[in-house]
From TrEMBL:
SUPFAM superfamilies: Homeodomain-like. It comes from Spirosoma taeanense. InterPro entries: Homeodomain-like_sf, HTH_AraC, Tscrpt_reg_AraC-type_HTH. Pfam families: HTH_18. The lineage of its organism: Bacteria, Pseudomonadati, Bacteroidota, Cytophagia, Cytophagales. One of its GO terms (molecular function) is sequence-specific DNA binding. The keyword Secreted does not apply. This is AraC family transcriptional regulator. Keywords: DNA-binding, Transcription, Transcription regulation. Residues 192-297 form the HTH araC/xylS-type domain. Transmembrane segments: none annotated.
């Protein structure tokens, strides 16, 4: 497989797409100005948001293919590699890309909270599908950013550009919330599969060999990225995936504590804890009693 094209700077990516660089740290890229091309993999050294407006092959992230058709958004954090699989055919790109360098937002409110926009960590088949109204709102935000970039840089430029990027991202949070609700058929059964996965895990010998199940492990088993999986669980049941795992852990622990042939240390090791003290601390935090106190009470 060919090495990916590397774009470390905004100006490099602008040049590749025949767009003028108006600011060294941020750009609204019009892909219709780019020359026709075939699919390729690309490395991005900055935040990248694609709005695709024409069917031109599948967007590939790592080994996965995005659920990525006309009118969808994809978010990439710095250091990620993505590309277009055009099956060897030449196509004319169309759409818009917002790119901004981490240096643009350092020391700003957005810079302090950028990790809260978890969709930058979403991966395969987790793109944001926009309604026509949502698409127009997104384009309006891009227009405001571009308006600032068209003017000479002054003391207000950075503040206004960053504020509009933050506004755009906040809208995308709302749009994803809507998508979690309206695409229930896509997510149907995820929670049931999650609970079944945990039941199977604790019935096996995996806790003794692999330790406690992690959110990342469960997401991988369900073919979702950890960020998307965590957000989906939180929106469905109002608690985090880690809290759900701990609830299941405590339920299993309570059943095991009933067995008089097992010591508390036995129960801890069977559940995947390296240290019984850790198990006792977690159990007391969740139940309000130590494992021994709980055993005495229910016996």
């Amino acid at each position: 497989m060919n090495d990916p094209l590397r774009f470390e700077t905004i100006s490099d990516y602008n040049a590749f797409n025949n767009n003028e660089t108006l600011h060294p740290l941020v750009s609204v890229v019009d892909l219709s100005k780019a020359a026709p091309r075939q699919g390729s993999r690309m490395y991005f050294g900055f935040y990248t948001i694609f709005l695709k407006e024409v069917k031109c092959g599948d967007l590939v992230y790592g080994r996965h293919t995005y659920d990525y058709q006309e009118g969808t958004l994809v978010f990439l954090a710095p250091g990620q590699v993505a590309g277009m699989n055009s099956n060897g055919e030449t196509y004319q790109p169309k759409g818009y890309v917002l790119v901004f360098h981490p240096d643009l937002i350092r020391g700003t409110s957005l810079g302090r909270h950028i990790q809260e926009y978890t969709f930058f960590g979403y991966q395969s088949k987790e793109a944001l599908h926009l309604s026509e109204r949502e698409r127009q709102i997104f384009l309006d935000c891009l227009a405001k950013i571009e308006y600032e970039l068209q003017h000479a840089i002054d003391k207000h430029s950075r503040k206004l550009v960053v504020a509009n990027i933050e506004l755009l991202l906040d809208y995308c949070v709302r749009f994803y919330d809507r998508q979690f609700l309206t695409r229930e058929h896509v997510h149907q059964g995820i929670l049931e599969r999650f609970e079944a996965l945990l039941d199977q895990y604790f019935r096996s010998e995996k806790p003794q060999t692999n330790g406690l199940p992690s959110v990342a492990y469960c997401a991988d088993q369900l073919n979702l990225s950890p960020s998307y999986f965590g957000d989906l669980v939180k929106k469905e049941i109002g608690k985090t995936a880690q809290e759900f795992i701990q609830s299941k852990l405590i339920d299993v622990a309570k059943d095991k504590i009933f067995d008089p042939a097992k010591t508390i240390n036995d129960v801890a090791f069977e559940l995947g804890f390296k240290y019984p003290q850790h198990f006792s601390r977690v159990f007391k935090q969740r139940v309000g009693q130590s494992p021994n106190e709980y055993r005495t009470q229910v016996s």
